[in-house]
Predict the 3D structure of the following.
Amino acid sequence: MRGFARRSTVAEALAWLDQHTARCPEEWVPVASAAGRVLARDVTSPVDVPPFERAMMDGFALRAADTLGATSYNRLALEVIGQSLPGRPFAGRLGPGQAVRIMTGAPLPAGADAVLPVERVEIASDRVFALGEVPPGKHVGRVGEDIAAGARVLEAGRWLRPQDVGLLASIGLSQVAVVRRPRVRIVVTGDELLPAGSRPEGFRIVDSNGPMLAALVARDGGIPLHPGIVPDQPEAILQALRSECDVVVVSGGSSVGQEDHAPALVRRHGELAVHGIAMRPSSPTGLGMLDGRLVFLLPGNPVSCLCAYDFFAGRAIRRLGGGSADWPYRRVRAPLRRKVVSMVGRLDYLRVQLVEGQVEPLAVAGASLLSSTTRADGFVLVPPDLEGLPPGAEVEVFLYDHPVA
Amino acid sequence: MRGFARRSTVAEALAWLDQHTARCPEEWVPVASAAGRVLARDVTSPVDVPPFERAMMDGFALRAADTLGATSYNRLALEVIGQSLPGRPFAGRLGPGQAVRIMTGAPLPAGADAVLPVERVEIASDRVFALGEVPPGKHVGRVGEDIAAGARVLEAGRWLRPQDVGLLASIGLSQVAVVRRPRVRIVVTGDELLPAGSRPEGFRIVDSNGPMLAALVARDGGIPLHPGIVPDQPEAILQALRSECDVVVVSGGSSVGQEDHAPALVRRHGELAVHGIAMRPSSPTGLGMLDGRLVFLLPGNPVSCLCAYDFFAGRAIRRLGGGSADWPYRRVRAPLRRKVVSMVGRLDYLRVQLVEGQVEPLAVAGASLLSSTTRADGFVLVPPDLEGLPPGAEVEVFLYDHPVA
C-alpha cells in the first residue's frame, strides 16, 4: 500500500501506446462477410464490368443510321428479328433495317450500335416504327464502363462499405484480404466476484466489468475472449496474461496494493511502461507488453474501467483492426450549466446530462457507481491545463448513445 | 412495357411506410449479448447494489469517534484485530479503539462506521496510528447507493450501451427482453445472374445487389436471409415472397416491363401500395404488404437498389428492430463546387466527393455504375421543390464511410 512513484500524463501514455500498436496481419474472408472490415491489400479488377455491351433502357437494338430522319410524322419501319434478354442474348447478327427487342441489361446484338427506347417506337406485330433518331452508342453501356479490367478499385486500408462488398462480388472475387480482428482476452480478477448471469449473494457481487468490456471490445472490432473470472492469485493471472491473443485487458487489481498482482507480473515478465496516469477517474491504470501482447491494467471500479478502456484499450483495439483511433461517439457542443472544478495537471472525465440544450455535470462523481454512466448522456473532458470551467463555457460532449447517427 | 400510371412522392411513400411499420415482438436474450439491442420492457432492480456497506478506499475500518483529535502531531493508536478483503469479510465485531485493515470494495465490519485511508495512518505491527480525523460514513459506500432495490434502472425502448449490459449483470439478471431483430429475406432475381463468389462468364454477370443488401440489412440490425438467386419465374418469386420472415426485399424486376413479375404478384396476392416514386434514381420502386410482411421492390440497377434500400427498406428495418428512422450516416455541411440541375417535383440523390472542403458531384450519374458509389464520399439530396442548386450553395452531405465517428 503505497502511492504511484510518478504518474504519466495522458499524452505520454497515448504516445507510448501508439508506438506499440501495429496493425494485425491479414486474413482472407469471404466477400459476403467483409463489410465493416478493413482491406489489407489493394484490389485490382481481373475483369471488365460489364463484360459486354449492354442495353441501358428497355427498347430496340438497331443501327443508329437506320433512325436518321425518323420523327412521329416520319415513322421509319424496321423488321423485328428476335429479342435479347439479360443472360439470354440474341444469337444472330442484325443487319440494316432490322431491330431486336431488348431489355435493360441485355447484351447488345452483334451488328447493332444503339438502343431506341420503347417510349419512342410504335409496335406492330413483326415490325416496329421508329418515331425518333438516336446517335450511335445511345443507351448502350460500354464494356468496362463501370470497372475496367486492371483498374485498382479499392485501396488497402479502406473500411469496406456495403456497396464495396457488392463491387468486390461483381468483379468475381470470392475472398478478400482484410486486417484480422484482434483477439482480446478479458481478465477479470476478484475473489468476491460471481460470473455475469448469477444473483448477487451474501458478500459476493456480480462481475459487471466483464460483460461491459466484452461489449466494448466487440464494438471496437475486436473478438472478446472472456472464459470466466480469474482467481486472485499470481499464477492464475500470469497464465491468463499469456493466453493466445493479441491484447490482454485486465480489470481489477491494477493499483499498487498488496493484492494487486497484475502490475508486478507485467513488470517481472514483460514491460510495464506506464503505471499511474494523471487523470480522474482511472489514475491506477497501467500499460505494458508481455510476450508481444499489449496489456492494459484497468481499475476495477466500473466507471474507471470504462474510462480507461475508452482512453487506451479501445483505441489500440480499433487501430490493431485497421480502424481509426477516434472514439466511436457522436459529438455535440453545448454550454455548461454550472461551473466545474478540476485540477491543473490532471485530465478529468465528467459524466454529464444534456438538459434543455445545456450540459449538466452529474452530481455523483464516484468511480464506483456504474449507474452514473447509464444515467449520463455522455461525458466531457476537462484538459490538464485548466483548473476548471466556468458556467456557460461551451464544451464538447461525447455521447454514449447509439454510435451510429 | 408501359410507364407508371402515377408516381408517388417520397413523402407519400414514407408516410405509408411509417404507418405500416410496427416494432417486432420481444425476445429474451442473455445479458452478455444484449449490447446494441433495444430494451422491450422497463428493467427494475431486484436488489441493492452494493448489497452491503463497503470500503471506498484502501485503509482501516474503525469508529470515526476514535479519530477525534488525531493529527500527525497527535497520533492516536488503534489495535488492529483483523482484515476485510473483497468477498472475505472480517467475521467479528469491531469495538472502541479497534481497527480492521480493509481493501477497497470489501465489506465494512460490524461496529465500524468509517474508513481511514492508508495514506493517513502509520502502521506498526499489531497497531496503527491515526494521523487525522474522519467523520462517520467517510469513505464508506452505502447499501444501494449505486442502485436501490425496486428502482427502475433502464426504460423500454433504450438502445443498450456496453455499460448498460454491465449494469444489468450487476443486478443479477441473466436474460433481458429486447426487441427481436427483423428477419429480412433478400430476393434477387435475374436469369443472367451468378451467385456472389462466382467468376463472371460469357453473358452472365455476378450478383452484386445480394451481398450489398445483406450487408445493409446487417448494418441496420436485421438478420439477412439470402439463400441464393431466385429464378425469374412467377411461382419461384411468389414462394420467396412468402418466406418465413418479417420483411422481403426484392432486387430486380420491380418495374413495369413484361419480365417484371414481382409487382403483379404483390398486387394480386397482397397490397401494392406504392409503385413508382418521384425520385432519381430509384423511381421504379414499389412498397407493399403480403401476408403481413412488408415487401420492398427495389430496382436491379445497383445504385438505384442502394438508394431505394436506404430511403425505404433500411428505415423500416431499423424501426422494426426498435431503432431510429434516421440514416446511420455522419453528416457534414459544405458548399457545392458547381451547379446541379434537377427537376421540380422529383427528389434527386447525387453521389458526391469532398474536394478541398467543397462538394463535387460525380460526373457519371448512371444508376448502373456501382463504382460511382464506391468512388463517392457520400450523397446529397436535392429536394423536390427545387430546380437545382447554384455553385457555392451550402448542402448537407451524408457520408457513406464508417458509420461510427
